[in-house]
Structure formats: structure tokens, C-alpha cells
Specification:
The complex is a heterodimer. Chain A is of the alpha/beta class. Chain A has a single domain (6-124), classed as 3-Layer(aba) Sandwich (Rossmann fold), CATH 3.40.50.2300. Chain A is built from four helices and five strands; from the N terminus they run βαβαβαβαβ. Chain A has a five-stranded parallel β-sheet, sandwiched between helices. The two termini of chain A are 18 Å apart. In chain B, helix 1 packs antiparallel against helix 2, helix 4 packs antiparallel against helix 5 and helix 6 (227-286) runs antiparallel to helix 7. Chain B has a five-stranded mixed β-sheet with strand order 2-4-5-7-6, with helices on one face. In chain B, strands 1-3 form a two-stranded antiparallel ribbon. Chain B folds into three domains: 8-199; 234-323, Signal transduction histidine kinase, dimerisation/phosphotransfer (DHp) domain (Helix Hairpins); 325-479, Heat Shock Protein 90 (2-Layer Sandwich). The chains are: A alpha/beta, B alpha+beta. The interface between A and B is medium-sized, with 24 and 20 residues.
Chain lengths: 136, 479
């Protein structure tokens, strides 16, 4: 964990945010959180992150706007969308806009491919061991 | 109570038949009297001739006594002969007119008179014409006496004849008047009957039809005994019942439709607590043996909260979807509006901001489920009117007049003036085909009106629409 990856979680639901933060912190990420869309957007604009995990539906500024802004400012940063309102249309839109992954709630962290912490979900850092690798 | 069923048709046929009968009787009666009159007039001519001849006889008799001209008596005899002929011709009628006794005395008088006149007329006879002043005077007196009896009788029968004609004419006129009076009476009775038994029920039917148009499906009470009207009213009541059933089905289907679209949103709404529960369980499983018990207890409490949240959403949905009879109960409007918003949460786009301003203790005595349905329709409409960014404001207050005012204002597209009058009509929609049933506002209006409330709409194209609902807070005082 010499070079922890910087990770931003944006979710207007306190408990979801808290649990994700708890799980991912244990994986050695350096974590920043935002409980509203505008706050998240501000963080995206001001600080570079390796990964942004964002809720899709939030008041005022939604996940799509975060995705667009992040892709525009930091193309290397991977954005993962998380939503309880998953639809095929929004998934396609997110992918077209360059999202790295699209996760539908409810998910299991342990099941491969479904949770943000799973192997396929979180991007592997180049030349560094991915934080998701640690899990068995 | 069993009511004897009578047919209007039978009554009308009977009264029309009676009318025809009276009119026919009147016409036949008039014809009969006219015929009688004709006969009487013809007979009067004969009687007049008889009287004329009697007068002629008397005139020549008078001439004889004045001038002593025997030729006058011959002429008098000629006329007397005419009188005899006319008397013979009409003897039965004359007898009927006066009496058989008088008629026979008249004939005797005629015979006697003929003899007396014949004496001096130069006819050969046993008794010679009296001579000398005494004989002459006696003869004259006798002739004049019998002559005047004859003319009196002739005058009396012509008087009687005239009287009889007059009576016949009076009877004919009376008959016509009576016929007219009876026909007029029959027409009045039939008219009154038709007015009370047909026109009044028709007016009642018209009023009840108007009520149906206003959404009041009350059947007509007090069925009249008239068969036709009774059948029409029965059909009308069957129709009203069917319409009520149809409307209830319509309301139900609209609710199911809105439930369908809402369900997707609600399912997503349940996903959030489920996801939180799932991730919490994973954390707890992983860290079961490790350190901080207090933190874990706290997490478990939060899990329970999330379970309650999910259960609340499901209960809310169940409560909304349950099909219930119209039932009024006291409830807090603010809570119901908030529940409605939570059900709709999944359907409200991120760019649409909802703001509320509601009195805390806003209590209504109403059908909770239907009121919720009404506001759900209004809020859904407001949200759908907004393309892109916008705001929906919901304000609910109790006014001093005991009315609860709920204002739902959106900053959406607005409604064109030409569409405003039809906005509450069933199946009227400005949405694209397949996107609106046109029943939402119709049902909302119906629900509000059923609660004795009103709903008003103000809209400016491009600026937005405001719905103002006013409902009595309580329909019973001191509740």
C-alpha cells in the first residue's frame, strides 16, 4: 500500500456511502466522499482521482454529469456508475460516455462482476497490483 | 307495496275513442234535429197555406156582409174547400199538434160554416138564404162566430207549430253546445293526463340524465304506475347502474395503469435499502470475529432501519393498490402527500426539483386512498409537464372557512387556452398516443367533486400550470 489509489465515492445515501467507504478503505484506497452531486462535481474538478464511484440518481447534479466532467478533465480516471434505477438505456448511455463499469443495486461485493469491489469492476492499475486482487 | 301497472297507451286509446264517440253522437244528433226541422218547416208551409185559406175565407165572408155580393161567398166556398183538403191531408199531424177533440170540432165547424155560407151563396138547398133585417143579422152573427172559431183554430195550430220549430232549434243548439263542452272537457282531461303522466316523468328523466353527465349515477326512485314510463325508468336505472360499474372499472383500470408505471420506480426505490442491507451483511460476515462491537451494533440498527424503509415502501404501494369501497376516515394530509411523493420518487427525473410547504397538522376527513390517487395524478402530471429542468411546488394549507387548499404548481410547458375547457373530460389528452389515457384528470376531478370540493386550473404556455384543489377539511362539525 505504498501508493494507495485515490478513490472518490459520491452517493446521496448516507448508509450506502458509509458501507462502500468501509469496505474499500480496508482494501487500502485513499478515499474521499461526497454526499451530494454538486459537492462531488466540485471534488472531481479540484482533485485528480484514479477511480470515481458515483450514484446515478442524485438531486441537482446526477451521475451522468459527474461522468462527463470527469472524462473531460481526467481521461485516465475510471468512472464506475452505481444505481438502484438501472435501465438498459442508462447503462448504454453511461458506456457511450466512457464509464468503466455500470453496477446495479443491490449487488454483492464478493460475487465477481457484480460489486464495485469485485475483480472485474475496479480497474487494475498499470504495473501495480489492483486493490481488488487481495480478496479471495 | 305493489303498484297496479296501467298502460298509458290504453288510457290514451280509451280517451280518444270516447272523444270520437261524443263527436259522432253530436254530429248524428245535429243531423237528426236538422232533419226534424226540415220536416217541421215543410209541414209549417202546409199549415200556413191552411191559415192563409182560412183568412181568405174570412175576407170574402166579410166582403159579402159589407157589400152583399154573393160572388164573394162562392169564392169563400172555394177557399173553404182548400181548407178542407189541407185539413184532410194533414189530419194526423194537426191532431198531434192540438188534440183529436179540437181537430174534430174544427171539422164540425168547417162543415157547419160550409152549410151557412152555402145558404146564401146561391147553392140550391132546402133552407133559403135568410131575408129581412132580423134574419140577416142572425145569419151574419152565426157565420161570424163559427168563422172566428175556425180562424182561431188555424191561428192556434200555426202558433203551436212555430213554437215547436223554435223548441227543436233550441234543442239542436243545446246539443251542439253540450257536444262542444264534452269534447273540450275530454281534451282537457286527456291533456292534463298526458302532462302529469308523460311530460313530468320526461322532465325527471331529463334531469336524471343531466345528473349522470355530471357523474351522479343515482337511480330514479318512486317508479310511477304507468307501464311505459315505468319501463323507461327501469331501463334508465339499469343504464345508470351499468354506467356506475363501468366508471368504477375505468377508475380501477386507470389506477392499475398508473400503478404499472409507478411499480418500476418503486422497485428501484426498494433496491436502495436492499443494497444497503446486503453490503452491511457482507461487512458483518467478514468482520464477525473482529473488534468494534459497538460499530457492528450500530450497523445492525441501521440494517433494521433499512428493512423498515423497504417495508414502508411496499406497504405504501399495497395500500394504494388495494381496491376499496368509498370510505371516509380522518387522516393527516401531509403524511399522505409525503407518502405519495415517496411512491413517485423513482419516476421523478433528477432535473425536476420538488418543493413542499405544508401545515403539519393538516387533517382531512375523506377517502384516504382516493385522495392519494387524486394527488398522485396531479403530481405525476406536473412532473411530466416539465421537459429538462424545472420545479414542482406543492403547498397545502387550512383556510379559515374550513377548506383545505392544495396548490400544485409546475414550471412545465403549460396548457393551451383552447385545451383548458376540456382538460377534465374523459379520454382527453395532449400527450402522445400511448403515453396518456386521458383519464387521470377526469378521475381526479371526480374524486375531488365527490368530496364536495373544487379543482381549478390556471396555465400559461411556456410558464407552467397551477392546479388549486379545495376540499372541506371535515364534513362533520366538531370532529
Amino acid at each position: 500500500m505504498n501508493n494507495p489509489r485515490r478513490l472518490l465515492i459520491i452517493d446521496d445515501e448516507e448508509m450506502a456511502l458509509m458501507n462502500l467507504e468501509h469496505i474499500l478503505k480496508k482494501q487500502g484506497y485513499e478515499i474521499a466522499t461526497a454526499t451530494t452531486g454538486p459537492k462531488g462535481l466540485e471534488l472531481v474538478r479540484n482533485r485528480p482521482f484514479d477511480v470515481v464511484l458515483t450514484d446515478l440518481r442524485m438531486e441537482k447534479v446526477d451521475g451522468m454529469q459527474i461522468l462527463e466532467e470527469s472524462r473531460r478533465l481526467h481521461p485516465y480516471c475510471e468512472v464506475i456508475m452505481i444505481t438502484g434505477y438501472a435501465t438498459v438505456d442508462s447503462a448504454i448511455e453511461a458506456m457511450k460516455k466512457g464509464a468503466y463499469h455500470y453496477v446495479a443495486k443491490p449487488y454483492r461485493h464478493r460475487t465477481p462482476g457484480t460489486g464495485p469491489r469485485s475483480r472485474t469492476a475496479l480497474p487494475k492499475p498499470q504495473g501495480k497490483p489492483g486493490p481488488g486482487k487481495g480478496q479471495s | 307495496m305493489a303498484v297496479a301497472v296501467v298502460s298509458i297507451r290504453q288510457k290514451v286509446i280509451a280517451s280518444v275513442a270516447a272523444l270520437y264517440f261524443f263527436m259522432a253522437a253530436g254530429i248524428f244528433g245535429s243531423y237528426y234535429f236538422m232533419h226534424q226541422l226540415e220536416e217541421k218547416i215543410a209541414y209549417l208551409e202546409d199549415v200556413s197555406k191552411l191559415e192563409e185559406s182560412v183568412l181568405e175565407v174570412r175576407r170574402f165572408e166579410k166582403n159579402y156582409f159589407l157589400y152583399g155580393d154573393r160572388q164573394s161567398l162562392t169564392t169563400a166556398l172555394y177557399h173553404l174547400n182548400r181548407v178542407g183538403e189541407l185539413m184532410n191531408k194533414n189530419v194526423s199531424k194537426i191532431e198531434a199538434l192540438s188534440s183529436a177533440e179540437r181537430a174534430s170540432r174544427f171539422r164540425q165547424n168547417l162543415e157547419e160554416y160550409e152549410k151557412l155560407v152555402g145558404l146564401c151563396a146561391g147553392n140550391p138547398g132546402s133552407i133559403p138564404c135568410p131575408e129581412g133585417p132580423e134574419g140577416r143579422s142572425e145569419y151574419e152573427a152565426a157565420t161570424r162566430r163559427i168563422g172566428s172559431a175556425i180562424s182561431e183554430f188555424a191561428e192556434s195550430i200555426i202558433r203551436q207549430k212555430r213554437q215547436s220549430i223554435k223548441e227543436t232549434m233550441q234543442t239542436a243548439v243545446q246539443l251542439q253546445f253540450s257536444t262542444f263542452a264534452i269534447v273540450a272537457l275530454a281534451l282537457t282531461v286527456t291533456g292534463t293526463f298526458l302532462f302529469t303522466k308523460v311530460l313530468k316523468p320526461l322532465r325527471l328523466l331529463e334531469e336524471s340524465t343531466d345528473n349522470i353527465a355530471k357523474g351522479n349515477f343515482e337511480p330514479i326512485q318512486n317508479l310511477p304506475p304507468e307501464k311505459e314510463i315505468r319501463e323507461i325508468f327501469n331501463s334508465f336505472n339499469r343504464m345508470a347502474m351499468q354506467l356506475r360499474i363501468r366508471e368504477e372499472q375505468l377508475v380501477e383500470s386507470r389506477k392499475l395503469a398508473s400503478l404499472g408505471t409507478m411499480l418500476a420506480g418503486v422497485a428501484h426505490e426498494v433496491n436502495n435499502p436492499l443494497s444497503n442491507i446486503s453490503s452491511s451483511c457482507e461487512i458483518l460476515l467478514e468482520e464477525l470475529e473482529e473488534g468494534d462491537t459497538e460499530w457492528k451494533r450500530n450497523l445492525l440498527k441501521k440494517v433494521l432501519e433499512q428493512v423498515d424503509k423497504a417495508r414502508g415502501i411496499v406497504l405504501n404501494l399495497l395500500e394504494f393498490s388495494r381496491n376499496k369501497e368509498f370510505f371516509k376516515e380522518p387522516f393527516n394530509l401531509k403524511e399522505v402527500l409525503e407518502k405519495t411523493l415517496s411512491l413517485l420518487h423513482g419516476q421523478i427525473p433528477t432535473q425536476v426539483h420538488i418543493s413542499t410547504e405544508m401545515d403539519e397538522n393538516l387533517r382531512l376527513f375523506a377517502d384516504k386512498q382516493r385522495i392519494q390517487q387524486a394527488f398522485m395524478n396531479l403530481i405525476t402530471n406536473a412532473v411530466q409537464a416539465i421537459e429538462g429542468e424545472g420545479e414542482v411546488m406543492i403547498r397545502a394549507n387550512l383556510y379559515s372557512d374550513g377548506m383545505v387548499n392544495v396548490v400544485i404548481r409546475d414550471t412545465g410547458n403549460g396548457i393551451e387556452d383552447k385545451d383548458l375547457p376540456r382538460i377534465f373530460d374523459p379520454f382527453f389528452t395532449t400527450k402522445d398516443v400511448g403515453h396518456g389515457t386521458g383519464l387521470g384528470l377526469f378521475i381526479t376531478h371526480d374524486i375531488i367533486v365527490r368530496h364536495g370540493g373544487t379543482i381549478r386550473i390556471k396555465s400559461i404556455v411556456g410558464k407552467g400550470t397551477t392546479f388549486t384543489v379545495r376540499i372541506p377539511a371535515q364534513d362533520k362539525p366538531n370532529e
